[in-house]
Amino acid sequence: MEKIKVYADQLKKNLTDALCSHGLDKEGAAVVAGVYYRATLRGVGHHEIDSLPDRYIYLDNGQTNPRPDIKKIGGMGAMELYDGDNGMGELCTMHVTEKSMDLAKEHGIGFATIRNSNHFLAAAPYTEYAEEKGFFTTVMSKSPAGLSLPGADKDLMGNNPFGYSASADDSSLLFDICFAYSSYGKMGKYIKEGKSIPEYWGRDKEGKPTTNPQDVMDSQLFMPMAEHKGFGLAIWVEMMSSVLAGGNILNQDENETGLRGNYSQTAISINVEKLLGPGEFS
Amino acid sequence: MEKIKVYADQLKKNLTDALCSHGLDKEGAAVVAGVYYRATLRGVGHHEIDSLPDRYIYLDNGQTNPRPDIKKIGGMGAMELYDGDNGMGELCTMHVTEKSMDLAKEHGIGFATIRNSNHFLAAAPYTEYAEEKGFFTTVMSKSPAGLSLPGADKDLMGNNPFGYSASADDSSLLFDICFAYSSYGKMGKYIKEGKSIPEYWGRDKEGKPTTNPQDVMDSQLFMPMAEHKGFGLAIWVEMMSSVLAGGNILNQDENETGLRGNYSQTAISINVEKLLGPGEFS
Asked: How far is B168 from chain A (nearest CA, A)?
């Protein structure tokens, strides 16, 4: 495969233009481009710009709303609930990330959740952004069913990604996982690279452990990390996002409308300086 | 072993009396007895009244303060920070559980954290109590180092237990784990029952995988669940509790005073009814 050199700043501009050409307004396109820019600079090799072609399909065929009217529909005090109007998950999640920081400025902690959203790509771009602004922020997402259990013949629960960021003077930490041993994106990378997987990562169509990542992609039987522990953590994210937001839960993967919008996200920001005083959080 | 029949109500009274005889005042003893009562009724077989004899030792030899002066020392709005004055972890954790609910009543969400605390026994008694009062509450604890990593020759991080409770009309859910494959309590139960463990649960003194639980108890090399994923989640609890509370972190297991008080706990309560309206959270 031929390598192409891409300059980071140029990438951001190109992404913004491309998103505009798929229907987003300039402001929204810049937000989404910023998310992909951060994700891609991490260099993980999945959950980055390789996810964009699918996003364009959903925008072009009307399954995702390019210009959502994101509305506050509930909450009190330090806790707010939004409807994402079936907009891109990157737009919706950045919206609640910003809101959670606004709330944390006023109340010390801020909790903002959004339903009727779409795939947020990954947690890291949002938590990293919030961390640069001085908050300790945790971001999580309910995703469509991507997690099974030993003995089950289908996926029952989202793998429900979760992440946070922190840094001190001379080091930084970015944590961004889902509660399966492997996400779809990571499994796809193993397939592309011809690698085998540990046999506890998933099951084949007969429900048997397998070391072939394609078997798991075909069966969709992704196993939760550490068995019941990972499954229970995925339920917690489900509660903290889609259940509290009143969004789709479990394997309710389609709206009655046939549109997408089956994700919910939650951001929790903590105003560290107000708890410990400046400079003490390191 | 001969079985003894104990009536639940009698148990609560006996526990209260016993705790008073080890120096607690009546009010504090009733709170701690309530925690052990709930934990014991779960019937899990560990993290229940079998932990009390150790607690009595710490109370009797002055390592734990039987009548702590728990003080608010920081915070703003929906977020409060307490010092536990080296009191029993059960007292300290119930204190922040109550405070988080008070805050959630006023602000929608409440975050209360406490440092200079001790072992809280388990998360479930607090989350179950809060759930009965109508809150969706998550409780977590920094604990002394009980989690290692492949290649490390000692424990580096607390196994940092985490739990939540929820219920609907006809079902209920109680989730209460630590981020090692096995806690100390569970490992002890395997030893007592002469059972072997999966070889990925821990390492022996030479750093090699072992199926003998006694090897792990001797080496103290407990492995994090799902490798880096469990380790990163333990760091998150560390951040959300001891780092934000300004308490002991990582393997700072002793205070300079030689006293205990090396735990921190955090309770986050969500006022579900104010977010979704009555009856919608099920």
From this structure: 12
- Which tens digit of pLDDT belongs to each residue from B219-262? 989 999 998 999 999 999 999 999 999 988 887 765 555 566 68
When pLDDT is averaged across residues B138-163 and rounded to a whole number, the result is 88
pLDDT at B275 over 90: no
Residue B7 has pLDDT above 90, yes or no: no
Residues of chain B in contact with residue A186, where contact means CB-CB under 8 angstroms, are: none
Is A263 part of the contact surface with chain B (CB cutoff 8 Å)? no
A-chain residues within 8 Å CB-CB of B177?
A: 229, 232-233
Rounded CA-CA distance B23/B29 in Å is: 9
Q: Which residues of B touch A232 (CB under 8 A)?
A: 175, 177
Query: If we measure between CA atoms, which residue out of B164, B153, B203 comes closest to residue B180?
Result: B203
Identity of the residue in B74, B225, B274 whose CB atom sits nearest the CB atom of A76: B274
Contacts of B70 (CB under 8 A, 6+ apart): B82, B83, B84, B85, B87, B91, B92, B95, B114
Cα–Cα distance measured from residue B269 to residue B104, given in angstroms and rounded to the nearest whole number? 6
Strands B109-117 and B79-83: parallel
Three-state secondary structure string covering A20-82: HHCCCCHHHHHHHHHHHHHHHHCCCCCCCHHHHHHHHHHHHCCCCECCCCCEEEEEECCEEEE
> What ranges make up the beta strands (E) of chain A?
71-76, 79-83, 109-117, 136-142, 145-147, 157-158, 162-168, 171-177, 202-203, 221-222, 263-270
| pLDDT confidence of residue A45 | 79
d(CA B236, CA B244): 11
Cβ contacts from A onto B, under 8 A = 127
Averaged over successive runs of 10 residues, the pLDDT of chain A (282 residues) comes to 82 96 98 96 85 94 95 96 96 98 98 96 97 96 85 84 89 92 88 93 92 94 92 95 90 61 93 75 49
Q: How far is CA A201 from the centre of its chain?
A: 21
Number of other residues whose CB lies within 10 A of the CB of residue A21: 12
For B239: left if phi > 0, alpha if psi spans -120 to 50, otherwise beta; the answer is: alpha
Q: Structure tokens of B204?
A: 């022996």
User: What is the predicted pLDDT for the residue at A167?
Assistant: 82
The interface pTM score, or ipTM, of the predicted complex is: 0.93
Whole-number Cα distances in Å, A177 to A92, A147, A244, B209, B248: 19, 13, 21, 25, 27
Helix (H/G/I), strand (E/B), else coil: A139: strand
Domains and CATH numbers, chain B: 68-180+224-276 (3.30.1370.60)
